[in-house]
Structure formats: C-alpha cells, structure tokens
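FORM 7B: Structural annotation worksheet

SECTION A. Query
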Amino acid sequence: MLIKSVDSALELFFDNGHFPAVHRKSRRHYETPMRTTSHWLISLSKAYKITGKEKYKNALIKSVNFLLKTEARPNGYSFSHRQNTHKSNCGGLICQAYALEALAEAYSTLANREIIKEAVQVFLLHPFEKSLGLWKKVETDGTILGFDNTFNHQLWFAAVGGLIGKFSNENEINRRVEVF
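SECTION B. Predicted structure
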C-alpha cells in the first residue's frame, strides 16, 4: 500500500524536489510546499528502504535538496511553511517538527552528515526554557514568538529532537529532550 501511495504521489512531484503546496480554505492561508514535501519525503525514504529502487532514492535526494535550499529557510532561521500576513510563516513548532522529522528520516537512509547538521542547527535555534521544559517558536525572520501552547506540538518537537540527538550525538539536544 505504501509503495502504491508513493507511486501515485510521484505523479505530482516537481522536478525541483517538492510536492504541491496545500491551500487550506478553512484556515484562510496558503502553505508552502514544505509540509507536503516533508511528509512525502518520509514515505519516499521508506519506499526506497523497502524496494531499493533508484526512482525513490532519486526523488528522496531531490526532496532533501529542496529542504536544504535557502528558499526553505529564506532568512536562515525556521522553515517557511505558510504565506500569511496574519499568522506566523513558521507554522509553530509542529511544522518545524515535520521538516526536522523528514531530515532525520532522510539522514537514516542516506547517511549524509550535511542533512543532520541542518537538522541540529534548526532544532537548537528554538529557545528552550529549562524551568518549564518547553520550546519557543521562531519565525522565519528569527523573531522569537513565544511558547507553542499546544502540548502535542511540544511533544512532537521533543520526539523529533530525540531522533536528531540520536543521529548526531548532540548533547545539548539530548539534554533538552530529557528535561522535557
């Protein structure tokens, strides 16, 4: 089933490495291709691990390269997930977790140190309040936005931090995850 889903998704795949963006009419904002590409990148990685087929690896590499481009993090801070003048463009911790999880999965498949270095950098730029055990959101321009008050966002971010910490042996990430 996964392979059939990935094959269907590849029909929508752009040559520059991303999947189509989503417009969420109910939330009145446009998303960038980051969210869909992050989710499909994980599926591409799994499809390649299962089958060993080059078409999945090639699409995986293109998707990773898309996430590592300047356009994905236009100011060198958080990944840009939304285009909205009334909400943050970073999409809070949850959207950052989506992209970081994708990078961690890609690293587990490709073993490219640049991938995990990028994940470490983005994770650590999110301020962590040790006394509360919570992370703050960081806008795409580097502005600190305050805490993400949704527990599952914090939880997912911590879980992804655990993956990144395991792959990178970054003690500071592991310490923050343990405090959380």
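SECTION C. Observations
DSSP finds seven helices and six strands in the chain. The mean pLDDT is 91.

SECTION D. Sign-off
Analyst initials: ____
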